[in-house]
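Ticket #4471: structure output looks truncated?

Reporter: J.K.
Steps to reproduce: submitted the chain below (174 residues) through the standard prediction queue, then opened the result file.
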Amino acid sequence: MNNLTINDLYFSDVATKLDHARNLNALYGSGLKKNKKLSAQLEQLQELAMAMRAQMAGMAMFQRCSQCGSRPEGGCCSLYMANETDAIQLLINLLLGQDVSFQRDDDFECYFLGEQGCSLLCKPFFCLNYNCLEILERAESHELRALEKATGALLQAQYGAEMLILEWLKVTSQ
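Returned output as attached by the reporter:
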């Protein structure tokens, strides 16, 4: 599998992780998409990610997060948070047809934070589970419950897809 290890995929810098994801997609993307289990998992993941995106849009989270991030003191989507991504998660986004590229490179905000919020369809665990005080205060309790439910389903599907990809690629732990 190109001699990539867990460390390469999960613990390198963001640009390197993105390079690994693009290389894996170029080398193995068509084979991965032909895997029936993974194909079904990706289809489910796409549906869940779109449902999550709709829930977030209904709560005006994209506008709030982008506005907050554009302030001089920034927001939650800091450059540090970009490191929460990994090469397999970026690969999943590529397999789903997402344009995975840096939206900014200002040494301050997350590379994937664009004008409409996060450009990733499948997001890191922390990003999906964290809600700032403003979101918590402005959202209705039923909206937060729906968001938590959508988050749980999406994270479970992402994990399933990631495990299938790692199994298919036969990644070593060294």
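Triage note (M.O.): checked the attachment and the full token line is present. The CA atoms of residues 94 and 100 lie 7 Å apart.
Status: closed, working as intended.
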